[in-house]
Amino acid sequence: MAEVLEVHGLTITAKDTNRVLVRDSSFSVDAGETLCLIGESGSGKTLTGKALLGMLPDGLLMAGELSFGGEVMSGYGKKEWRQVRGRRIGVIYQHPEQALHPAIPIGRQLVDLLRSHLPVTRHAAEASARAMLDKVSLKDTDRLMKSYPFQLSGGMNQRVMVAMALLLKPELLIADEPTSALDVTTQSEIIALLQGLVAEEQLSMLFITHDLLLAGELADTIAVMKQGEIVEQGTAAAVMHRPKHAYTKQLLNCRSSFRFTSEEGAYLYVGNR
Ligand SMILES: Nc1ncnc2c1ncn2[C@@H]1O[C@H](COP(=O)(O)OP(=O)(O)OP(=O)(O)O)[C@@H](O)[C@H]1O
Ligand SMILES: [Mg+2]
C-alpha cells in the first residue's frame, strides 16, 4: 500500500532550555490506515501532531523529515502549510472550541471554509455543508446551519468538528484525543462515526490517545511514546498481544481487562471485571 505520511527522525527541542521534547521519532501511515500514537501525559503526542500540521509553537525547534503524499513538508513556509493544513490534512481536537468559532453560526463556518479553498458558489457550498452535516449523522440541518456552537451539546459540536475536518476531503485526518472529554456513550458514538467515515472515504488517520484499549479497537498499527521517544511500534495485534517493551506491558497491566496468560504466552482480552 502507498505511504501517505512518512516521518523520519522527528526531533523537537525547546530553544531556551535545549530540552528534547520529541526524540528521533520515525513512523509512517499507509493509505486507508489508522496509526494510533499512545503514551502517557507529556510524552510528546500533541507536539508530534502539531509538527505534522506546521503548528509548532515559536519557542520550539524541529529537525527530521516529514513527507506527505511523497512530498517533503519539513521545509515548508507559512503559505505552503496553509495549503496543506485543513485542506489535505484535517484535524480534530479534544475540545470543539479549538476548531469552532464561538460567535459565527455553524453553517457560515462550513461555507467560509469551503469557499476559502475552492472556487464554489455560496449555494453549492451550502449544499455541501448540509450534506457533510448529514454524513456525521446530525439531524435538522436547516436549524443547525443557523446555530452557534454554544447552542449545541458537546457531542454535537464534536460531530460538527468532524464535519469541518472532512469537508475538504483530506487524505489524512489527525485526531488528538477527540473523545477524551466526552461521556462513555457519546465517546463510543463518535468513535463508531470516525471508524465508518475512515472506511468509507479510505482516509488515513493518525489517532492520538492515552487509552490503549481504544487504540486496540481503532488501529491498524500502534506507536507507543514515552518521554518523547517511540519505544515500540508494530501492528495493533502485535503491540496489544505480544508487547516487547516494559512500558507497553505496564500500560496493558493497568487495564484490568487484559491478562498475561502463560499457556498462550500472550496478552488476552478478558473483558471488564
Ligand atoms: N511550547 C512549549 N514550550 C516548551 N515545552 C513545551 C511546549 N509545549 C509542550 N511542551 C512540553 O513538551 C512535552 C510534550 O508535550 P505534549 O503536549 O506533546 O504531550 P502529550 O503527550 O500530548 O500529553 P497529554 O497526554 O497530556 O496531552 C511536555 O513535557 C510539555 O511540557
Ligand atoms: Mg496532548
From TrEMBL:
SMART domains: AAA. GO terms for cellular component: plasma membrane. It is a peripheral membrane protein. Gene3D superfamilies: P-loop containing nucleotide triphosphate hydrolases. Residues 5-252 form the ABC transporter domain. InterPro entries: AAA+_ATPase, ABC_Ni/Peptide_Import, ABC_transporter-like_ATP-bd, P-loop_NTPase. Coiled coil: none annotated. It is found in: Cell membrane. Belongs to the ABC transporter superfamily. This is ABC transporter domain-containing protein. It comes from Paenibacillus radicis (ex Gao et al. 2016).
